[in-house]
Structures are given as C-alpha cells and as structure tokens.
Amino acid sequence: MIKLYNTLSRKKEIFKPLKDKKAGIYSCGPTVYWNQHIGNMYAYIQWDILVRFLKYSGYKVNWVMNITDVGHLTSDEDAGEDKMEKGARREKLSVQEIAKKYIGQFIESMDLLNIRRPDTLCRATEHIKEQIDLIKKIEEKGFAYQTKTGLVFDTSKFSGYAKFSRLNLKKQHAGSRVEIDPEKKQPWDFLLWVTNQPKHIMQWDSPWGKGFPGWHIECTAMSAKYLGNRFDIHTGGKEHIPVHHTNEIAQAYGAFGKQTANFWLHNEWLMIDKVKVSKSLGNIILTTDFIKKGYSPLAFRYLAITSHYRQGLNFSWKSLEASQNALNNLFEKVKEFTPTQTPTVPSGQVGRGLDRSAGGTNDYQKKFIDYLSDDLNAPKALALAWSLIKDEKVATEEKYRLLLDFDKVLGFNLAKIETEKIPVELSRLAEQRQKYREQKEWRKADEIREEMKKLGWTIEDTDEGPKVKRLQ
Ligand SMILES: [Zn+2]
C-alpha cells in the first residue's frame, strides 16, 4: 500500500491507480531558455525516485514530461518578456537554436544524475494544434472571453478556482496583470492565447488571431493527449501551486468538466547555503560543475536522496563532500560484497527476491518497501541500506543481492561497479604525492592530485593510507 501526500487534500492518501497496476505520471518540465541548475535537477531526481519506486512495486509507469519552448513569460503570471526570446537575444542565437542547446543541456544533466528518461518528452511548439483544440473546447463551454491581448480564461465561471492553492486570491494576484490587460474581468484571469504581440518571434494562426499559447495550456493539452483527461499523478515544484497548477486545474474544468490528475505532488526547493538558487544572485551550480570540481554527479544524487522531497535540501559543498565520501564507501562495500563468481542479479520483479532470501533478510526488503511506501521516504530507505551493510548477521552475498535490488530505486548504478586495476603511472604519482606530504610540501602534493584528476583519477587519504580511485 503506497501512500503519497496529495496537495489536493493536503493529506497522505493511499495511491489507487485508475487502471490496475498502471500509473500515468505528468511532470512539469523545464523552460529551455537557460541551463537547468541543481535546484531544477533536485526535483527531477525526486520524481525519478517516484517513477522507479512505482516500477519496483510492479506498476507499468508511463512518465510524460513537457518542455516549454514557447510563450513562457518571465513571470508565471501574464507579465514580462518571453523567456525564450530573451535567451535568444542574449546569446545571439535563434529561438530554435536556444531550445536545442538547452534541451541538450537538460538531457545531459538527467543522464549524469542517472535520472531515467521520461517515456515521452514533449515540446510545446510541437503541440500547437492540440493546444488550439483544447482552447476551442474551453471557449465553446463558455469559459473564455476575448480582450485586445488575447483569449482570456474567465475564472469567475469556475467556483472552485481558489480551492487548490488555498490562498487569498486578491492578495496573491492583484498587481502586475492588471497593468498588462486592463480588460481582464478578474485580475487573476489568465491568457489562453496571446495576440497582438507583433515583436514576438514565434507566432501561429488561430481562431483568435495570430499569436501564441499562454504558458499553462500546454501542460493541460499535452497531459490529456498522452495520458488522457484523467490520469494518476501530476508533479511539480511547490511554486506551481498558486498559479500554474491552479490554472491547469481551471482549464481542465473548463474543457472536461473535471480536473485531470488524482494526485498532485509538489517538491520543496533546494537552497544553496540557505539561499534560493537564482541567476540574479549568481549562485547557480550546474551538474557538470560537479565533474569540473572532481565530484561525481551521483554524489549529488546521493545528497538529494538524503532529503525528503517535501523537505527540500540545503546544499553546501561540505555536504556534497560528505555525500561523495558516503557514495565512495558504498561502492567499496559493493565491491567487497561482490561474489567472485558471476552473480545472479535479481531480475526486475519485486517478490522474487523475497522468495529466495532466507531468514531475517526479508525484513530489510520489507522495510525498504515500507519506507518508500510512506510518501517516498527515500532518506530512510537509504539509511536502511547502511544498516544492512553493517549488519553482521547477513551474509555478504545476501547484502550484495539486496543492495543491487535497492539500487533499482536509489539509482547509483551499483550493478556497473567493477573492480579495476590501477595503472602503473597512477601508482607512481600517488607514491610521489605521499613523499611530498611526508615532507609537508602540500602545494606540490596538491599539484599531483590535480594531475591525477585530469587523468580521471582521485586519491583519498584513509586510515589505511592513500587510496587511488577512478573518478565516478
Ligand atoms: Zn506544467
């Protein structure tokens, strides 16, 4: 029995899929006008855990994620300039080139963090027809009106509009939008289709004039296309609750007379030294920065998993260092436990392992499932892996088998760990470094460490002396 915290009810609820053992998940994806930083990636690691755990529990998961490559203004509300066009101007590229560049950066970051690729990664610009069709439906049902700025959703037609965010709308939204479109009936009414923006590069013909879709409509249109107008789980950052998801719910109500997702899951943010990640503060860190500094991106995955998705994470380089050490130790343990003969890696289905394991080790798998079933308590599941490693009553082969089984959810690529021979050159460098250290020639010792790093290796000083390791 899996329980998930549903923002709709502000409670943990038992997850009941719409169709037996199938789960349709839609995650709000990136706006590809800039690099996706570790604050963005933190959320995708958490949703990757959700997807992996549902699969581990025997669900057939269909994971859909959008890519916003049009019409998303610099504020979530209908104000500001188009982010894509701003990016294009900044880098002297076309909007198409900007999209391509940053989709690439996003996918690279996902791969480095071992986030599974969504089954469908859909771009807003490739679904203009679906968005227009959906807006037509909303208009036919009487939920829209035209202003000079475009076609606007009439929130007064949906009495439940404020319910999802549970916030005082007047306080929340008054201000920016009124200036943008004084014809709006309510300041929090939002644009479904934007017209009369001659400077805007990306424009399409529509029944309401040449223009482009409002941001919120793409998620409703694409989730309905790929998952149906009723599906299991919708995810996003908590910042999406008051505007973006509130508007998605309103649009779906307008078009289908009901809202789309049974469960709405929201992640808390990653902060850096207790400050929000933002370009204006200049504290952006990218996944590839970890590699440049000699860390494994998987150390960041490890760090992200030490925090619960609804708690968020305060990132610091010190905490990353600790996670890198923990991950290295985990890899060492897995190497140590690796059976000398070709191991029989458990194959996919949960349950099979349970039948084969003997005695008290069943408890570990049961606990692992219990923790994750409790609103994805990955930090506890990760801590359990360490209890298992330290448990002297469990045989090493069994530890190995269970760790590889847990790794289907945790995602540290434990099955790919190989015991590796250290090249002679590296051993020599390590020896030289050790000599410098003994002579307290710290700078020279550090230079050697740097040189090793360039060759893809690292050195760790342990109680048993220095150990040379390949950078993960
Ligand atoms: Zn969305």
Give the SSE map:
Layout: E1 3-6, E2 11-14, E3 22-27, H1 38-56, E4 60-67, H2 83-91, H3 95-112, E5 120-123, H4 128-140, E6 144-146, E7 150-153, H5 169-173, H6 176-180, E8 190-195, E9 211-213, H7 215-227, E10 231-237, H8 241-256, E11 261-267, E12 270-272, E13 275-276, H9 287-292, H10 297-305, E14 313-315, H11 317-337, H12 352-356, H13 361-373, H14 378-390, H15 396-410, H16 424-438, H17 442-454, E15 457-462, E16 465-470
Bound molecules: zinc ion.
Can you offer a commentary on this structure?
With 472 residues, this protein is of the alpha/beta class. The chain folds into three domains: 249 residues, Rossmann fold; 145 residues, Isoleucyl-tRNA Synthetase, Domain 1 (Orthogonal Bundle); 47 residues. It is built from 17 helices and 16 strands. The protein has a five-stranded parallel sheet with strand order 5-4-3-10-11, with helices on both faces. A four-stranded antiparallel sheet has the order 6-7-8-9. Helix 8 links the parallel strand 10 and strand 11. The longest helix has 21 residues. The protein binds zinc ion. The site of zinc ion has 3 residues, from loops.
